[in-house]
Backbone:
């Protein structure tokens, strides 16, 4: 247990929290747009969002590696315009995690919105309310279980990241050395005790989160 | 409203619909008098709902013109379409479409201009929902839900009130009660009302005029008295007060929410306070108050 350190765990939760909060800002409007748009190329957008579900994280990691590279076009612009380095930094992990966990936020919220009776939306319009007001005051409050599911799945999925972090984040303590990477590292060094401590904590916390969600969602079904 | 006033609504619309018998055009052109209550009936799938949705701006016809008072709501020739939000319509949906996250009061407040709007309380008491104001829609009965939907639509202060078979899922007695309340509110708020129903015989007693939609065409079956069939309508009431005079007995009867005074010959029968009675009304016994 000598090598155990709270830092990787704290970093994991910081990454998951930041990613989830940003995903709320990005994912909910995106899900709302997808649920109601008649855009011709909607299937293309949906397919792109769902890619992280099927691709190995190393594929995503590989392309992020190319894109974030400071000598590449995007990486260079980010660096010169915003002084933002995304390779081997916490910020880079956040950006990559947003793409990586996007389907976990978008899918439940989109499905929740699509399953609401159309008449709710239309009733609100006939009562003079704009699309935006309808979305925030009528639609979102009535898909709380979907929102909670999206929130928690995104959070849990980000906790579970490994391959992607390894490819674009590396193993910098306090910056990119999240718990999943720390476990791998400790096992490589044959520090089974420390690896077990990280692993067990992740297991217990993740289980606790999921259990809470399913328990709450069961109560919310009849609202 | 037998006499023709200035047409409040003029609706012209054409669009292709898919009927049970195959595709056929919906092609209508009619006017509705201001403050009238029009019953719209016809076989299911004949486009009744579509017609209401066109009026509300929820469905766009291929071509059409809607004029309400002196405002143009839709003129496809000018590529002009007033969004639903800017049309002063109140719509009551078949499924009530109450917002599950809000209480009864919040649902009505949502439609009012502001939360302090005194109309909210007035409407709640008009349909006897004050006691249920803090309940969520999921805990209400079907009839109560439609009552909330009705007053929510009125809280918007609409010029045009559209009802899409709102009472069809309710039992006979509740349906009659709600129809009575609808007529009362329709008169009180002076809306131009269109009520879609497949119970033609039932709306005949409340409507000023009946339109029938069949195969995409509207036929005017005229005002109910012209249509001929007048069915007496039984209304349940409770006796509140009995005053026995020499020749007549005055009964104060509560019919739904109204207190009605009825004079009946004395001696023929004993009347008791609290007793439930059925009053039968025929439309021929009613005379319209001159405007």
Residues:
């Amino acid at each position: 247990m000598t090598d155990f350190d709270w830092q990787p765990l704290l970093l994991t939760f910081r990454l998951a929290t930041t990613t989830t909060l940003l995903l709320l800002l990005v994912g909910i409007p995106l899900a709302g747009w997808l649920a109601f748009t008649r855009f011709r190329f909607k299937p293309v957008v949906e397919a792109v969002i769902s890619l992280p579900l099927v691709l190995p994280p190393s594929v995503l990691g590989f392309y992020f590696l190319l894109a974030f590279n400071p000598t590449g076009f995007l990486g260079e612009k980010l660096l010169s315009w915003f002084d933002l380095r995304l390779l081997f930094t916490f910020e880079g992990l956040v950006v990559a995690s947003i793409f990586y966990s996007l389907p976990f936020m978008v899918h439940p919220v989109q499905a929740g919105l699509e399953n609401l009776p159309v008449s709710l939306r239309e009733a609100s319009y006939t009562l003079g309310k704009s699309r935006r007001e309808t979305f925030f005051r009528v639609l979102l409050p009535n898909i709380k279980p979907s929102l909670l599911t999206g929130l928690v799945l995104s959070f849990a999925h980000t906790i579970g990241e490994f391959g992607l972090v390894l490819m674009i984040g590396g193993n910098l303590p306090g910056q990119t050395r999240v718990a999943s990477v720390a476990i791998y590292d400790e096992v490589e060094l044959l520090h089974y005790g420390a690896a077990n401590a990280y692993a067990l904590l992740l297991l217990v916390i993740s289980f606790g989160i999921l259990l809470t969600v399913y328990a709450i969602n069961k109560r919310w079904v009849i609202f | 409203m037998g006499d023709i006033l200035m047409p409040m609504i003029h609706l012209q619309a054409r669009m292709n619909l898919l009927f049970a018998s195959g595709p056929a055009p919906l092609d209508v052109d009619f006017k509705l008098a201001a403050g009238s209550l029009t019953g719209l009936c016809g076989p299911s799938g004949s486009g009744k709902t579509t017609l209401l949705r066109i009026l509300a701006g929820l469905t766009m016809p291929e071509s059409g013109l809607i004029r309400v008072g002196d405002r143009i709501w839709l003129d496809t020739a000018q590529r002009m379409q007033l969004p639903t939000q800017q049309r002063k319509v109140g719509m009551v949906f078949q499924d009530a479409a109450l917002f599950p996250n809000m209480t009864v009061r919040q649902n009505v407040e949502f439609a009012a201009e502001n939360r302090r709007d005194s109309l909210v309380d007035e409407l709640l008491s008009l349909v006897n929902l004050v006691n249920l104001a803090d309940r969520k829609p999921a805990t209400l009965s079907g009839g109560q839900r439609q009552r909330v939907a009705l007053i929510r639509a009125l809280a918007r202060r609409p010029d045009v009130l559209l009802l899409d078979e709102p009472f069809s899922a309710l039992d006979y007695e509740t349906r009659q009660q709600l129809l009575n309340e609808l007529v009362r509110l329709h008169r009180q708020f002076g809306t131009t009302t269109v009520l879609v129903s497949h119970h033609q015989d039932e709306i005949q007693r409340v409507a000023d005029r009946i339109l029938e939609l069949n195969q995409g065409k509207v036929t005017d079956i005229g005002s109910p008295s012209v249509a001929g069939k007048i069915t007496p309508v039984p209304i349940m009431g409770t006796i509140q007060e009995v005053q026995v005079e020499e020749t007549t007995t005055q009964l104060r009867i509560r019919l739904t929410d109204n207190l009605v005074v009825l004079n009946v010959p004395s001696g023929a029968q004993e009347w008791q306070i609290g007793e439930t009675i059925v009053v039968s009304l025929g439309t021929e016994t009613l005379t319209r108050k001159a405007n």
